[in-house]
Amino acid sequence: MPNDAVKEISVSLPDGSTRVIPEGSTGLDVARSIGSRLAKDAVAVEVNGSERDLGYPLAEGDVVRVITAGTEEGRQILRHSTAHVLAQAVTALWPGAKFAIGPFIADGFYYDFDLPDGQRFNDEDLERIEAKMREIVSEDQKFTREELSYPDGIELFSDQPYKVEIIERVRDSDAGVDDELALEISGSGAQVSAYRNGDSFVDLCRGPHVPSTGRLGHFKLTRVAGAYWRGDEHRPQLQRIYGTAFESAGALEEHLTRLREAEKRDHRKLGADLDLFHFPPEVGGGLPVFHPKGALIRQAMEDYSLEMHRSHGYQQVWTPHIAKSTLYEISGHLQWYKDGMYPPMEMEGATYYPKPMNCPMHILIYKDKQRSYRELPIRYFEFGTVYRFERSGVLHGLTRVRGITQDDSHIFCAPEQLAEELRSLLSFVLDVLRAFGLTDFEAELATRPENYVGEIREWDEATEALRFALDSSGLPYVVAEGEGAFYAPKIDVHLRDAIGRRWQLSTLQVDFQLPQLFDLAFIGQDGQRHRPNMIHRALFGSVERFFGILLEHYAGNLPTWLAPVQVRVLSVREDHDDYAEMIRSRLAVESIRAEVERADEPLGARVRRAKIEKIPYVIVVGQSDVENQTVGINARGSQDPVRDVPIEQFVALVQNEISNKSSPESP
Fold it and tell me: Which member of 239, 406, 509, 566 is catalytic?
């Protein structure tokens, strides 16, 4: 008799359990076997560490994890799939349009287009495109994967030059695909992959995607911007449409509300409104100039940081802004980072570069004389400005600039001191950041990548030292496997701001490479030469970026200790001006930044202006104040003024806020 029994296979789940399923079963079948709710929420699966479509057939022994829509990975798949629908809609509405790349990004996605005859998108076009996208979603078109040879792929996309260039670039590259194109292409051997939506649209893509367009729908197109192809200003300028997508209408609305709030908090707008900084075209993109009020804020930030560093055993150093090419040849920057460096200058037979990093010069200070184990750890600190030529397309206010002032530290310690030094260092970093009113932190521990230098033993010791620092701090963290630099592991500290956005701030990085390249040493207790460990640490990340993050976190309502003007004194009438000036002088004695605005226009207008300028305290003085030596206080954020407050009581109030790094108003 024929054996009609169905052959079965066994697959493993993340919790270590196994599922026995019929041969030929897919990721979706596994999700269904676990539960109908999971199957409904599933958008893809991870099989043996690689993301796959739900329809991917499983094999004996596969390790399977179901990816759901509400996870970060699931949202990335939703967004990438929605980007395909965006491209499908644009090519339907603009016949002959060329489409380039369309990846997911943090909180959304984009797609780059080259429209025929130089046509340009406008705001009304976004509405038309959205409507077409919703039509495609309603048709519930299936996403179908195809594997193509390079020649077949080039023929299929023969009317799409950007896609052809991507295929040729990968075909001709020994390294395969780079990060920017990672979502655009994949395959094995001489094959590439593509996805069709129904019968009308095909795109080059590695996937995975949701099973069909009907799984999408909670999306919004947000804006249009320019973008050079491959980030090269010598290549065509394309039009980039940005959008976002979520798993539910509620999650989308929450995000759009956050975007509206972020727009109000945009540090570029606040910088102009509050007269803090601007970017003169005569200076060049990514190079801000700070106005008097902005410079006051910077100085307050730097003064506090310097005070804290000195009290924790750091030695301040200063290094020049340029150096000979030989320094960067030794350090490896010319080998690894030359594309991001400013062009060289030739002078008196030598080649000079603006410095891209402070570390090589700090190393030269360490190396200037023989060091003993008794001196270690040595902690150098500098507000050092470095210069990196970021492409114009990625510049963004203060958060992405070309002149970067780092609160940079380099620590040289004996190997046996490394774990405790990292623990102390991470504690110091968090204490300083908390003084700026930041509280919601998390971290990533980035471990050894596939391509690395040094001994595995050194990597393991450094990684465990970093893990010890994190465990001791109580800071929540995740392990980013293989995400360390080629020369050492690191900790990245992230912040969530007042509206829930995630920013990377401080980095603590162990370095095996530079001490070897510069032949650094110290004399140990045994009288022999030993190699020190080196730690790189930028606390703010950069002063400019941290300035921008603080402005947005506080929506411009900086804590009193950071506010450029802490108190504005307003006289009710001209005959109260002298008393107002006396109060300003009294505050100045206590180093409280105060100014007087005299009674040359209505009081209400002056109060409103002070509130628009986000000054922590507005003091109004009238006849009874003159007679009783009091003030009327309008604290930022309060609804009702407080009258008849003795001058010394007010001075003590402001002094207390400044010393405690607090503010009359929360973010």
Answer: 406
Among the listed residues 402, 467, 536, 593, the single catalytic one is 536
pLDDT in the model for residue 480: 92
Contact 362, 331 (CB under 8 A): no
What distances in angstroms separate CA 405 from CA 52, 93, 358, 431, one per listed residue? 43, 47, 10, 21
Catalytic residue status for 490: yes
* Closest by Cα among 199, 186, 217 to 81: 217
Taking alpha carbons only, the member of 553, 540, 557, 554 closest to residue 612 is 557
| Total residue length of the chain | 667
Among 590, 109, 562, 69, residue whose Cα is nearest residue 300: 562
| Residue 431 backbone phi and psi in degrees, to 5 | -60, -45
d(CA 269, CA 315): 37
Chain centroid to CA 27: 34
**Annotation marks residue 413 as catalytic:** no
- Exactly one of 98, 388, 423, 614 is catalytic; which is it? 388
Average confidence (pLDDT) per 10 residues, the chain, 667 residues: 72 92 93 93 94 94 94 95 96 96 91 94 93 96 92 94 90 56 52 86 93 94 91 89 95 91 93 96 93 97 95 96 94 87 92 94 97 97 93 86 94 95 95 94 93 86 94 93 87 92 92 92 96 94 95 95 96 93 95 94 93 95 94 90 93 93 61
> Amino acid identity, residue 238?
L
Catalytic residue status for 37: no
CB 198 within 8 A of CB 141: yes
Of 203, 408, 577, 625, the catalytic one is 408
Catalytic residue among 107, 163, 209, 359: 359
Q: Which of 182, 198, 251 is nearest to 85 (CA)?
A: 198
Residue 396: left if φ>0, alpha if ψ -120 to 50, beta else—which one?
beta
Q: Which of 410, 467, 494, 537 is catalytic?
A: 410
Domains in the chain, ordered, with CATH?
Answer: 9-68 (3.10.20.30), 73-263 (3.30.980.10), 278-319+358-553 (3.30.930.10), 567-659 (3.40.50.800)
388 has catalytic annotation: yes
Using a cut of 0.85, tell me whether the model's pTM lies above it. Answer: no
Residue 3 confidence (pLDDT) = 55
Catalytic residue check, 661: no
Which among 85, 12, 81 is positioned nearest to 46, based on CA atoms? Answer: 12
Q: How far apart are CA 123 and CA 130, in angstroms?
A: 11
Could you confirm whether 218 is annotated as catalytic?
Answer: no
Is residue 408 annotated as a catalytic residue, yes or no? Answer: yes
Angle between helices 456-473 and 418-435 (to 10 degrees): 40
Q: Give the position of tokens 């077409």.
A: 132
